[in-house]
Amino acid sequence: MNFEFKNFELTNNIVICTHVNPDGDAIGSSLALKHYLERKGKQATVIVPNVFPDFLRWLPGAENVLVQTNQTHKEQIKAAIDAADFIIVCDLNQPNRLAGLEETVMASQAPRILIDHHLNPDTNFCQTIVSHPEMCAAAEVICHMLNEWGELDSISFEEATCLYCAMMCDTGAFSFNSNRPIIYEYISHLLARGIDKDQIYRNVFWTASEGRLRLQGYLLYVNMKVLHDRNATIITLTNEERRRFKVKNGDTEGIVNIPLQMLGTRLSIFINEDTEHPGTMKLSLRSVGDFPCDQMASRFFGGGGHKNASGGKLQCTMEEALEKVKAAIGSYADMLKV
Fold first, then answer.
1. Furthest C-alpha separation in the chain
2. CA-to-CA distance for 164 and 167, rounded, in angstroms?
3. In a 10 Å sphere around its CB, with 0-12 CB exposed, 13-18 middle and 19+ buried, how is residue 266 labelled?
4. How high is the pLDDT of residue 208?
5. C-alpha distance from residue 149 to each of 5, 31, 56, 267, 278 (Å)
6. Which pLDDT does position 3 carry in this prediction?
7. What pLDDT, on a 0 to 100 scale, did the predictor assign at position 278?
8. Residue 142 backbone phi and psi in degrees, to 5
9. From CA 213, how far away is CA 220, in angstroms rounded?
10. Chain centroid offset of residue 253 CA
11. How far, in Å, CA of 30 to CA of 115, rounded?
12. If 0-12 CB within 10 Å is exposed, 13-18 middle and 19+ buried, where does residue 6 land?
């Protein structure tokens, strides 16, 4: 480990920021760091580029997260970054993943540390890099750091809750990328802090709105395209459909995983029109076994991620995106054979 707590000793104001469209690992890891640093007597502020899913708002400290696209937060964000003695960039590997925060963060004179688990981190935008692509989540990297510092058994209930939620979210409730025994050793430490892992699961996965349930049925029955000869599925969602079902923030989370329950399916792709940028199609890719989602996302969709869970985007209509995705799947026909 090339970073120790002594790096924080002379700092008082720390900003923690994460990637655009923050997920459970991004929010959970960032809040865990915030609680840890505040327990050490520091002022820590979590800033995100845009809104995060409603099913994460129960996390301790979530009510204090500053959102860059929220006009009422802009002055607070500028003040926090201007005052920062240190900036932690969490759960991303490229500065452009900071989206609207990139320019402000990069202009800051405060030293930056990257804490991440994605492949091929950009080594030029942070002075210190703590990157472990073999780990299941940024939260596991943080557990590893805390363990190295002899701090893992001293963390608070709030820290443990955030770390467990983050790892649970980034592994699909420990259903992929989660076979390494050390993950469960860390979990045992978190459980010892009194967290209720069953309640955390319910808070994330069993809080669906009526709109989500109806949307889910519609997408599976009407919009899911099954490519039987490719062992793949494609689900599409337009903004018009989103409005029809009164979809709330976070209601589409996890939908891409559902087709993988179907016998023989090796790849699922969800094409979701960007609510903030009409004409931009966001893609989520999920796979089972050794199919390389990250390779497909990088090659065809300008994205990346992990072998079994990746993302990307296309600048085109939904119809054009659908054809591009079908072509990409066709190019991997041999690898998709069962």
1. 60
2. 5
3. buried
4. 85
5. 7, 19, 28, 40, 46
6. 58
7. 83
8. -65, -40
9. 11
10. 11
11. 10
12. exposed
Nearest to residue 298, comparing CAs of 287, 281, 320, 283? 283
What are 270's two structure tokens? 């969800």
**Hey, what long-range contacts does 175-183 have (CB within 8 A, 24 or more apart)?**
176/288, 176/308, 176/309, 177/136, 177/306, 177/307, 177/308, 177/309, 178/136, 180/134, 180/136, 183/136, 183/140
Q: What is the DSSP string of 136-199?
A: S-HHHHHHHHHHHTT-GGG--HHHHHHHHHHHHHHTTTTTSS---HHHHHHHHHHHTTT--HHH
Query: Rounded to whole angstroms, how far apart are CA atoms 218 and 196?
Result: 33
Domains of the chain (ranges; CATH) run: 5-205 (3.90.1640.10), 210-331 (3.10.310.30)
> For residues 121 and 114, what is the distance between their CA atoms, to the nearest angstrom?
9
User: Are 318 and 236 within 8 A, CB to CB?
Assistant: yes
| 91 neighbors 26 (Cβ within 8 angstroms) | yes
Enumerate residue ranges in the chain where pLDDT < 70: 1-8, 10
pLDDT at 223: 98
User: Virtual CA dihedral for 329, 330, 336, 338, nearest 10 degrees?
Assistant: 130
What is the end-to-end Cα distance of the chain in Å, rounded?
40
CA separation for the pair 75, 73 (Å, rounded): 6
Phi-psi category of 272—alpha, beta or left, where left has phi over 0 and alpha has psi -120 to 50? Answer: beta
pLDDT value of position 125: 93
pLDDT score at 1? 45
Please give the pLDDT value at position 275.
84
Tokens for 45, please give them.
Answer: 């502020």
Strands 267-273 and 280-287: antiparallel
Q: Running DSSP on this structure, what letter comes out for residue 263? A: T
CA–CA separation, 47 vs 226, rounded Å?
39
Integer Rg of the chain from CA:
20
Neighbours of 270 (CB within 10 A): 26
Structure tokens given for 96: 């452009």
Pairing relationship of beta strands 232-237 and 267-273 according to DSSP bridges: parallel
| Nearest to 36, CA basis, from 55, 51, 16, 57 | 16
